[in-house]
Specification:
Blueprint (H helix, E strand, L loop, with lengths): L4 E11 L6 H9 L6 E7 L6 H11 L3 E3 L12 H9 L4 E6 L5 E2 L3 H11 L5 E9 L10 H9 L6 E3 L1 H6 L14 E3 H6 L11 H9 L7 E12 L21
Parallel strand pairs: 1-2, 1-4, 2-3, 6-9
Antiparallel strand pairs: 4-8, 5-9, 6-8, 7-9
Length: 250
């Protein structure tokens, strides 16, 4: 723990055959106005050109580091195992997740870290986001996104959504999109990292475990700072049709 670097953001990424989108994801990190980040990426033996693209970025920026080269699926134990593998090598005070088909807009990390700097009691800071297609075109807001945006009417204000996460059932009814969020590293470790028994919705499962810690505060900012991609090869397409548990008592 003594090696933890103050205000460094450790970004975790898993990828498999993401050649169509990973360059946009990686470029979105390079364009961040906040420069103090590292990317820990696990490439699950891609065969579509992803590996070659990734190597180019690794060779051009020392902040991008590959984890576990060649350890395909690590015994088929799921996303949680692979995320925790990346997490075990994270040196930052903060942790973020970026899937290899999503993007963080240039102000994302600076915005979230700025809020942590103003109030150290926050455990997680997330923001609003756009839903985008394979070509990065903005999609009309889904029902879930529309209801998420109702939570934050003022883009300059951080809304405490701790009680909403506490009542959520996980998955699509979670008020946080992982590609927007920054978490305190010590809080993630306090709950044992990512669940190794959940194949899907590992992020919302993590948030729901964090919210049970005493003193947890989770904030949602109304600013749009990320793009959450939907495409035919992504399981999350189903989220656009998913139901949402309407927040109450905000």
């Amino acid at each position: 723990m003594s090696e933890r670097m103050s205000e460094l953001v450790s970004v975790l990424m898993l990828t498999y055959n993401s050649a169509k989108t990973i360059e946009q994801s990686l470029s979105s990190l390079l364009l961040q106005t906040y420069p103090y980040w590292e990317l820990l990426i696990y490439d699950d033996c891609s065969s579509d050109g992803t590996t070659e693209c990734l190597n180019d970025y690794i060779n051009s920026d020392h902040r991008i580091k590959e984890v576990g080269r060649g350890k395909r699926h690590i015994g088929h134990r799921g996303i949680g195992v692979l995320r925790n593998l990346c997490l075990s090598q994270a040196k930052g005070e903060f942790v973020a997740v970026l899937d290899s088909d999503d993007v963080r807009y240039p102000i994302n990390l600076e915005t979230c870290i700025g809020i942590f700097q103003q109030d150290e009691t926050w455990s997680i800071i997330a923001t609003q986001y756009d839903e985008i297609d394979i070509f990065s075109n903005r999609l009309p807001p889904s029902n879930c996104l529309h209801k998420r945006r109702k939570i934050t009417q003022n883009s300059c204000k951080v809304v405490d959504i701790t009680n909403i996460i506490e009542r959520s059932h996980g998955g699509a009814d979670c008020a946080i999109a992982p590609c927007t969020a920054v978490l305190r590293h010590d809080v993630v470790l306090a709950v044992g990292g990512f669940s190794q028994s959940w194949q899907y919705h590992t992020d919302s499962n993590l948030y729901r475990r964090i919210v049970k810690l005493e003193g947890t505060k989770i904030g949602l900012l109304g600013s749009v700072t990320a793009g959450y991609r939907f495409h035919e090869n992504q399981r999350s397409m189903e989220k656009r049709a998913s139901t949402w548990v309407e927040p109450t008592n905000l």
